[in-house]
Amino acid sequence: MKILVAVKQVAALDEDFEIRSDGRAIDPEFLVRDLNEWDDFSLEEAVKIKEAAGGSVEVLAVSVGPEEVDESLRKCLAKGADRAVRIWDPAVEGSDPVAIARILAAVTRREAPDLLFAGVQSSDQAFAATGIATAGLLGWPHAAVVSKLSFAPGAKTALFRRELEGGLLHEVEIQVPAVLTIQAGINTPRYASLRSIKQAAAKPIELFGLADLGLTAADVGEAGSLSRIRRIYVPEKGRAQLIEGSAAEQARRLAAIIREFQGAAV
Amino acid sequence: MSGILVIGEQRRGELRPITLELIGAAQRLRRDGVEVAVAIFASEPAQFTAALSIAGVDEIVTVAMDTPEFDPDGFESAAGALIEARRPEVVLVAHSVDSFGFAAALAAKHGFGFATDVFKLDRIDGELVATRGGYGQKLSVEVDFPGRSTVLLALRGSSFKTPEGSAAPRIGAFAAPRATSRSVGKEFFELSSADDVDMTSAEFILTVGRGIGEEAKVAQFSELADAIGATLGCSRPIADAGWLPKSRQVGQSGKTATACKLYIAMGVSGAIQHLAGMKHVNTIVAVNSDAGASIFGVATYGIVGDIFEISEELRRHF
Questions:
Q1: What gap in Å lies between CA B70 and CA B41, rounded to an integer?
Q2: How far apart, in whole angstroms, are the C-alpha atoms of residue A102 and residue A43?
Q3: I need a labelling partner for A159 at 20 to 30 A (CA). Which of A78, B37, B88, B130 fits?
Q4: Does the beta-carbon distance from A141 to B73 stay under 8 Å?
């Protein structure tokens, strides 16, 4: 029994960032990287299933990206993943979520897990597409925005709740193997202990190239993508009128806004 | 063939309002001689034709489904067959939880051009260009779809105007091939909580976000909310951490601040899902130490500063 957890190393903007000279990406020097917030929850959900089963479940963390992504995979190993796989080839540069999904689908075929988890979305690009695109390419049953899950290893189905808009939940039963995208808040992700961080540092990270997965450069990058970035730009600033001054002065103005509201409400 | 196809969204017998926004977006995109068709998938789709007879719709396509509610396999199969049969140049769906569950799989399988969370649409030199956000809305990203004859776009809510006026579109049925569904939808549950607060009816809300840093700080803001007469709300990370009950969460998966007139957001960065629940509020005051936080993009007033310092100073006035 195996659970594959697809994770992404996301990027946040440094305070003073610069757009690359071709206008289509951020200069990587100005990006701060970390494991995607949602993926912390999907990894935890897989590890919880493993622990409840008392062994016999393997949790495999998979990520697509260059060497620096090893740092995020080590974090997954420290938090309970048994194995970590990274896939990279320079041709992957410029991939959209569907091109990434082609790679994840190929790894999934090779590893044949019972469940594939992915985060609902990534905090940097927020497509909310990679996991479900992977399911489409695999032809597997799938569900998005899972906020509660019951699954016993070996069972033919999983029962879950998907979190809809406005606080509504929908209970669904799905055939396994399946792809589920996991919502933040489904569990409380653990912190890695110092000891497990040390142990993770010594574990190998398996590296696959495109050929190992039966893929070519045409399957990934811009050629394998369903969209292409034309340009990125900083949008015009919003309409907020800034309240300047010391904290005391700012608070005085805020108090006046509240009084005005209270006066109008009476 | 050309044309714009809108895939409407219904849940439990009600048309979801974003469907009308999709129609508004389709109107913006339409060129001379291009028709706008709206498809609705339901076990009894005819019940929605009156609500869909709005200006700008040329045709309503009813698609009868085996299940009353969203089912990923059924939707993918029916939508795929409908698109292959009509070959529209653009297909519009909502960037919603139901679409999360099928649109990417559909696009990947059929090779449609694809982008999600789109809030702006243009034609530049005749080519379709979609704009979405990046890095917590700090950047806008323009994407295009070279070589794709059909493009599937999931549109962000509250980004396109709802059309006004009614019309008498043609109504036709599309017989979708039967799909084998591999999941079974069961019950719906409303978010319940011991806390009986109703965020939707609160007129004055003070919301705390990730910026409060730790659970022990919640009490301070709860006390402040009481003092100034506000209902205490929170953003998603605070509810996820269990620091405040889910019933106080404002945003897409939480509650919409429907009746709110004054909204003070403290330490809320302004994730798009949070903004969906409050950006309509008349007066919004954002307090955040990060001058680049996207909450300032929807706020009426902005205070760049330390939320603890501001809240302590504010408390002195009440």
A1: 8
A2: 21
A3: A78
A4: yes
CA distance A116 to B210: 29
CA dist B208 and B266 (Å) reads 5
The total number of structural domains that make up chain B? 2
Per-residue model confidence (pLDDT) at position A263:
85
- Integer Cα distance of A198 and A192 in angstroms: 10
CA distance, residue B316 to nearest chain A CA (Å): 9
Question: Which among A192, A120, A107, A27 has a CA at the least distance from the CA of B253?
Answer: A120
Give the structural domain span for B104.
4-174
Q: Nearest by CB to B135, which of A12, A97, A174?
A: A12
B249 and B109 share one domain = no
| CA distance readout (Å), B189 to A69, A257, B154, B196 | 39, 38, 26, 16
Fold that domain A2-219 belongs to in CATH: Rossmann fold (3.40.50)
Judge whether residue A177 has pLDDT over 90: yes
- The residue type of B72 is P
Q: Are strands B59-64 and B36-42 parallel, antiparallel or unpaired?
A: parallel
Task: Say how far apart CA B142 and CA B163 lie, in whole Å.
Answer: 25
For residue B167, what are its two tokens?
A: 């019309």
Q: Is residue B222 within 8 Å of B281, Cβ to Cβ? A: no
The pLDDT, as a whole number, for residue B2 is 78
Per-residue pLDDT averaged across B138-166, rounded? 95
| Cβ(B250)–Cβ(B234) below 8 Å | yes
Hey, are the CB atoms on A247 and B309 less than 8 Å from each other? yes
Q: Is residue B57 part of a domain?
A: yes
Give the residue among B307, B286, B306 at the shortest CA–CA distance from B297: B286
Do the Cβ atoms of B297 and A240 come closer than 8 Å? yes
Which pair of tokens denotes residue A67?
């060497």
According to DSSP, the β-strands at A83-87 and A206-208 are parallel
Residues B103, A129: C-beta atoms closer than 8 Å: yes
Alpha helices in chain B (DSSP H): 18-29, 49-52, 72-86, 97-100, 103-110, 218-228, 236-240, 272-275, 307-315
In DSSP terms, which residues pair with B189 in a beta bridge?
A169
CATH number at residue B275: 3.40.50.1220
Neighbouring CB atoms inside 10 A of B67's CB total 16
What tens digit of pLDDT does each residue of A125-146 get?
999 999 999 999 999 999 999 9
**pTM greater than the 0.90 cutoff:** yes
Q: Do B146 and A130 touch (CB under 8 A)?
A: no
Q: How far is A238 from chain B (nearest CA, A)?
A: 4
Distance CA B122, CA B222 (A): 45
Q: Look at residue B138 in the predicted model and tell me its pLDDT.
A: 86
- Domain map (residue ranges) of chain A: 2-219
Contact A143 B184 (CB under 8 A): no
Distance (Å, whole) CA B200 – CA B249:
11
Instruction: State whether B41 and B150 are in the same domain.
Output: yes
- Asked if omega into B68 is within 30° of 0 (cis), the reply is no
The CB density around residue A266, as the number of other CB atoms within 10 Å, is 5
